[in-house]
Amino acid sequence: MPQLRRAAWRVGVGGACALLAAGCALNRAQVKSLRDPTATRIQFDAVVDTTIAALNAIPAHCGPAGNRRVRDEEFRVYRIVGTVTRVKRQRDHDVHLVLADAAHPGDRVVVEADDPDFRKNAASPYRDKLAAARQMFEALVSQSSGGRLDDLKGTTVRVTGVGFFDVKHLQVGRSRSCIELHPMLAIERLK
What we know:
CATH architecture: Beta Barrel
CATH class: Mainly Beta
Structural class: alpha/beta
Distance between the termini: 64 Å
Radius of gyration: 17 Å
Number of strands: 6
Largest sheet: 5 strands, mixed, barrel
Strand order of the largest sheet: 2-3-4-6-5
Order of helices and strands: HHEHEEEHEE
Oligomer: single chain
Number of domains: 1
Number of helices: 4
Strand content: 25-35%
Shape: globular
């Protein structure tokens, strides 16, 4: 019996490690690229101006939710201002940004810019929104001093994006509430 328990533990740990390694790439792909059936209910014209600290204060929803929107916040579009602390291109071709709140630097949020042409993202009814945001991001990078992602660190930006609750998978910069802005709809440098 101890061998069976040990084998089951190894399978469970192996599955958890695989999920953590896959991370955001496998979690709710339809929701993140606005391909889910409920995306038509997103309030694109009623942008909510808020802060990163306020997004962190939302009650946490860090569990799995499937490929559907489950909380009111996921039907809203938010606009925030933050300082870029991290930028990384993910395996799923998303660009992963971490923004810190200027007044409360310990409060952070992940923002992701989808690749509009990667896999099924090209079939999103909102592909034009994904493409416009990605173009804005690439223009921001090209305007930075060296034209590299790392050159954006320390830059203050205004970002607009759709609320999205992610699963905890050891992502750097995750908000306490597990909310992200995914997908990003707009980004601009502030002086």
